Amino acid sequence: MLKKKKKKKNRMSKFFLETFVLFGFLNFMTIITVLGTTLASSDITNPVPLNEETLAAGKKIYTHNCLPCHGEHGKGDGPAGQYLDPHPADYTGSAVTSKSDGFLFQRVSEGYNAMPEWADALTEEERWKVIHYIRTFASPAPVAGEAKEKGGKK
Ligand code: HEC
Q: Is 79 close to ligand 1, i.e. is its CB under 6 Å away?
């Protein structure tokens, strides 16, 4: 973007002004979006399709980032987790299974007590994928076809 501006020297000041205005507008939109997402995310359903591919991706993300605390079986008993108080969440417990994807997404994004925030380290898509994956600890082997059939799964 900067390079482009330099090339068109004669139009630079106009370009600069426009960019500046646009940038301000984009910032404004970002703030609105972030606010909106924060307020609404508890209600939104997982926008990433649930299938073998996304689960495999979620597993990778989990193994690299979450397993040390949450454990191989999602019980909250990872090697690094035992030193934390409170212990990392057990994904098979009702405290997690009762919550919506949107709620968990928000917790994961913002961090929660001893859990760091993941908004910078993982993209939104990655976070949704890993949420799909951690659901599998409570209900093993979710069938991709089930998601395709839909049937109002929450
Ligand atoms: C440094 C250890 C640590 C890592 C790494 C970690 N977590 Fe956690 N996580 C925790 C702790 C501790 C809690 C429980 C906090 C509490 O209950 O007060 C928690 C809670 C949770 C919860 C439950 C939130 C709730 O509302 O009950 C979810 C979901 C979760 N983590 C997902 C993840 C995901 C996904 C990752 C990887 C991207 C991850 N965590 C990585 C420590 C960790």
A: no
